[in-house]
Amino acid sequence: MVSPDHPRLHTTSPMAKPSVPRNKSSFCLSDSLLFIGGAFFALVLVWSLWSFLTPTTDPSPNLGPLGDSQSKSASGADWLNCGEDSAETTFYDEPELSYSIGKPLENWDEKRKEWLKQHPSFAAGARDRVLLLSGSQPSPCKNPIGDHLLLRFFKNKVDYCRIHGCDVFYNNALLHPKMGSYWAKLPVVRAAMVAHPEAEWIWWVDSDALFTDMEFKLPLERYKDHNLVVHGWAHLIYDDKSWTGLNAGVFLIRNCQWSMDLMEVWASMGPQTPEYKRWGQILRSTFKDKLFPESDDQTGLIYLLYKEKEKWGEKIYLEGEYYFEGYWHEIIGTMDNITERYREMEREEGTLRRRHAEIESEQYGAYRTRCYLKEAGNGRGSWRRPFVTHFTGCQPCSGDHNQMYAGGSCWDGMRRALNFADNQVLRKFGFVHRDRLDSSLSPLPFDFPAAD
Ligand SMILES: *[C@@H]1O[C@H](CO)[C@@H](O)[C@H](O)[C@H]1NC(C)=O
Q: In this entry, which stretches build a coiled coil (predicted)?
């Protein structure tokens, strides 16, 4: 959940070099038409779905939370009448099934598959379905503005998922009493995998990380042969033996048996085991730049990659091509220029500044990506908005940020990043934060920023 009180310095691999955007208007004219055509088609589709879903007559009264009509639409089952039992049993009916770390779950792939077969209404889109998880501590934050910051970070995740169609589970209880701080996410991921067999991917995003490109979509196709995606760099793990070779604050893990097995092995280095102390020593002696003696989740994962590469490495994708998760200190200073770059694009091209419904955001985002961001690059040195900005070492809740950051730079950085992200959302609601740090709003003029 919360990162340890140590900076996780990122050494980002050099990404595509920055370059000047060319005028793409002519190039994208046909795209523009396609886009309008696509939008029209989508409209027709939504319209017909809408007329299909709108009940013309509904004689049945609402039977409360599990009312008949609701249960039908949610699962395709029509058995949820009082006194009737479900026809088929699922893995949930096995008394020995556990949601907890330390109780290995077997044949998960078959169980999940069987469940999906019994719930065919979830078949469509099952391959790409994502459940986003995040969480924070069970008690109030010590930092007086901590809970407010966490609320804004959480709102940001809800915004992103509303636009891109992922589900969100936010947890603020310790699912395993001994697995606190950075280990607390593992039990949450484990339980969520069982609770959400319809989700193919579980996406953990630390509470102090936020989406700063609301248009960017996870390139899931790229990960089709992998089960775990983390922001990382092979040379830092295998050559430099650095504990910052990857960042475990954001990861995407496939809901499958392989992941169940990995979680068990990974968690076996955690504070709930009698081996915890010994693991601290092993990790520190293997990764010399590790700053503190306790075994931590991030170094543990790097250890697995380093020591058992044949076993795990093949299915772990080290994503270094874009900011799957980016170090805030490297990013904050680039935000003003990026904002200006995007304004230029929008002054140049009417489609990009055209008002539209929030639900159409993905299409407009894809249009910008296709026509205007091809040469923007990704990650360090890029003028594309960074996908995820992670306030590593800032500790918004406790307030005990790392001493290497000057007082205020963490909080100012967060406010800037939150406003930067929020402006992308609020635009669809007709408003904008004019000030980078201030949370006040102004109405957005028509055709902004053409005549700004
Ligand atoms: C922002 O753009 C200005 C003008 O092009 C440039 O001088 C400056 O170095 C850029 N700043 C960053 C952080 O990239």
A: 335-362
Question: Is 197 a member of any domain?
Answer: yes
Whether ligand 1 lies within 6 angstroms of the CB of 337 is answered as: yes
Q: Which amino acid is at 43?
A: L
For ligand 1, atom 14, which residue shows the shortest CA distance? 334
Q: What would the pLDDT profile of 3-53 be if each residue is shown by its tens digit?
A: 443 434 333 333 333 333 334 444 454 444 444 444 544 544 444 444 444
**Which residue in this structure is represented by tokens 């469509």?**
124
| Within a domain: 51 | no
CA distance 263 to 104: 9
Domain count, the chain: 1
- pLDDT tens readout for residues 308-367: 999 999 999 999 999 999 999 999 999 999 999 999 999 999 999 999 999 999 999 999
pTM of the model: 0.84
User: Ligand 1 pocket: which of 337, 382, 384 to mutate (most atoms <8 Å of CB)?
Assistant: 337
Q: Which domain CATH number covers 142?
A: 3.90.550.10
Name the residue range of residue 179's domain: 91-319
Please indicate, yes or no, if residue 372 is contained in any of the structural domains.
Answer: no
| H or E stretch at 305 | helix 297-307
Residue 337 C-alpha to ligand 1 middle, in angstroms? 6
Task: Compute the distance between CA of residue 252 and CA of residue 248 in angstroms, rounded to an integer.
Answer: 10
Q: Is the CB of 293 under 6 A from ligand 1?
A: no
Structure confidence by residue, pLDDT tens digits, 377-433 = 998 889 999 999 999 999 999 998 888 887 679 999 999 999 999 999 999 999 999
Query: How many Cβ atoms from other residues are within 10 Å of residue 77's Cβ?
Result: 14
As given in the structure block, the two tokens for residue 294 are 């306790």
Q: At what angle do helices 276-286 and 297-307 cross, to 10 degrees?
A: 60
The secondary structure element, H or E, covering residue 209 is strand 209-211
Report the C-alpha gap between 14 and 68 in whole angstroms: 56
Identify the residue whose tokens are 């790229």.
Answer: 222
Query: From the CB of 340, is ligand 1 less than 6 Å away?
Result: no
Residue 113 lies in a domain: yes
Residue having the nearest C-alpha atom to atom 8 of ligand 1 = 337
Task: Tell me if 333 CB under 6 Å of ligand 1.
Answer: yes
Per residue in 154-186, is it b (16+ CB within 10 Å) or e — as a string?
bebbebbbebbebebbebeebbbeebbbbbbbb
Q: Quick one: how far is CA 39 from the chain centroid?
A: 27
